[in-house]
Amino acid sequence: MSDEQDVQQDVQQGDEPHAHERLQQLQRRLAEFAAARGWEPYHTPKNLAVALSVEASELVEIFQWLTPEQSAKVMEKPETAHRVADEVADVLAYLLQFCEVLGVDVLDALAAKIERNELRFPVTGPPTSNCHSSE
Fold this sequence. Notes:
Layout: H1 3-12, H2 16-36, H3 45-63, H4 68-71, H5 78-102, H6 106-120
Helix pairs in contact: 1-2, 2-5, 3-5
């Protein structure tokens, strides 16, 4: 089973501590990969943030001219599913490297952000589908 499948299975099974360990293991592998190639001097917060933005843009590019209906079906086609998975992996890799360099625990940061959003956007009634929090 691949690392990605392990993490996905852990999350689905609710095995949060193990998923956290797997995430840390992947961060170490990324750091070792960069160190073995002498890339550490280039992995500054600025450079990693820029690389993260570029990879996110490559993910957006896949969806750029699709209708909402077409975008919901991208994983049904092997050629686009592979591209989406690769770009998601690139985005996550740069995000994890960015967090490693700055000492951010990505899971703790996400949990804290969700808690702040739950306070910021309390449930006040039945869900609505016609607006988003940014509207």
